[in-house]
């Protein structure tokens, strides 16, 4: 792996197509599902990329994008842990990890954890939240080895899968 590069909100026009191309490769076998099609993913890229706190890292191997991770500070009052924790954490302290994707050729190499750690290392938020498709228990188990805990389930969109809500960073979690 040659490099992992960091990008922000202003860089979205430059990296957008890279994200779409990696997604198309990573989800090639799931394109029959409308929720995983490129057009839907493009909407998510634009949605997250429009946030001033958008943060993205992309791994390149000999110039070829191998994977990426991105997210942003969770919108106050819209954190995915809401409704699952009592008492609630301090507002404004949650980073929402929206996407972590590795192209098939680079899976099983430790790249996902490198992307995850590189993305989160400089983040000021105390908590990190993410969603994992409930039909992917191995992915959930991997995140648990990285310090995440399941706190509930939710279906954020009528056409989306049911997701496990995971959280990292609570002192008693």
From TrEMBL:
Pfam family, any one: Acetyltransf_1
GO molecular function: acyltransferase activity
Key words, A-Z: Acyltransferase, Transferase
Domain N-acetyltransferase: start-end pairs: 2-171
Gene3D superfamilies per UniProt: 3.40.630.30
Alphabetized PROSITE patterns for the sequence: GNAT
EC numbers: 2.3.-.-
Keyword Phosphoprotein in record: no
Protein name: GNAT family N-acetyltransferase
Source organism of the structure: Streptomyces sanglieri
Origin organism lineage: Bacteria, Bacillati, Actinomycetota, Actinomycetes, Kitasatosporales
């Amino acid at each position: 792996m040659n490099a992992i590069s960091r990008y922000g909100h202003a860089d979205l026009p430059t990296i957008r197509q890279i994200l779409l191309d990696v997604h198309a490769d990573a989800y090639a076998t799931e394109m029959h599902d409308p929720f995983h099609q490129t057009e839907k993913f493009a909407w998510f890229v634009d949605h997250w990329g429009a946030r001033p706190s958008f943060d993205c890292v992309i791994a390149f191997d000999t110039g070829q994008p191998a994977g990426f991770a991105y997210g942003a500070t969770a919108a106050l009052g819209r954190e995915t842990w809401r409704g699952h924790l009592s008492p609630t954490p301090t507002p404004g302290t949650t980073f929402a990890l929206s996407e972590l994707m590795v192209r098939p050729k680079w899976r099983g190499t430790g790249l996902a954890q490198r992307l995850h750690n590189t993305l989160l290392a400089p983040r000021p938020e105390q908590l990190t939240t993410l969603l994992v498709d409930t039909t992917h228990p191995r992915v959930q188990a991997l995140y648990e080895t990285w310090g995440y805990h399941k706190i509930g389930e939710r279906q954020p969109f009528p056409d989306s899968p049911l997701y496990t809500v995971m959280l990292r960073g609570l002192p008693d979690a």
